[in-house]
Amino acid sequence: MKKIIPSFLTVLNLICGCFAIALAFQFQFEAVLILVCLGNFFDFLDGFTARALNSVTNFGKHLDSITDVITSGVVPGIVVFQLFKLSGNKVSDFEVLIFGYDLTFSLSPISFIAFLITVGSAIRLSKFNTSIGNDEFVGLPTPANAIFFSSLPVLINSELFIESKEIFLNNYFLISSILFSVFLMNAQFRLFSLNISIKDFKSNIYQAILIIISIPILFYFQLGGFAVVVLVYLLLNIIRNLWSIF
């Protein structure tokens, strides 16, 4: 039973990712964001439960990795793929003859750049799985990246950005965001985790600042505010790394 509980939580994460994929293709971005957040919550719980019950297994680790690729890799890729379509990119018909079958595909080739996020996430997760455990992250965690891109269309569609949609819904912004996120996920850039240390409260200063700043952001921007929170998280880590140098 101890081994089943963590795996069950991992499967719940996987289910959230599958549902999020289906809803992303229907442009239901708010539901996608909720499912991604819920899936990542289950991702946190399965690891926490496995350690608490002393039931960490190789099977659980592999299942968790596969699930993370879906929820934190495939989902944000599809979300951005849909954003490329909303940007008004031309859809062309391509005919391919395979084994005597004449197949016709209606595609917008530039939209497939979005799946670089999926590739970058898979590489990031592979590095994480083979790294030695640490209290810090090296590279932007895939859940944070997934939450950013899943909340981006919600933020864009909010009343606050009605007049500035074109700034975000264009190929230059989307491609730049994709490439930057892939770089951040796999760069040797140290970021603090959200684990709170009870023994040393001074080490929680950046986590506390992030929580305090996040509350008014989420209140003001609502669900779309998660994208802003991820940007604040990155900014705090830049300040933290620079502060450690000096």
Question: Topology of this structure?
Answer:
Layout: H1 4-24, H2 29-52, H3 58-86, E1 92-98, E2 101-107, H4 116-130, E3 136-138, H5 142-156, H6 165-168, H7 171-186, E4 190-192, H8 205-221, H9 225-245
Antiparallel strand pairs: 1-2, 3-4
Helix pairs in contact: 1-2, 1-3, 2-3, 2-5, 3-4, 3-5, 4-7, 5-9, 8-9
Properties at a glance:
mainly alpha, two-stranded antiparallel sheet, 66% helix
Please provide a written account of the structure:
By secondary structure, the chain is mainly α. The chain is 66% helix and 8% strand. It has nine helices and four strands; from the N terminus they run αααββαβαααβαα. It has a two-stranded antiparallel sheet. Strands 3-4 form a two-stranded antiparallel ribbon. β1 and β2 form a beta hairpin. α3 runs antiparallel to α4 and α8 packs antiparallel against α9. The model has no long low-confidence stretch (mean pLDDT 89).
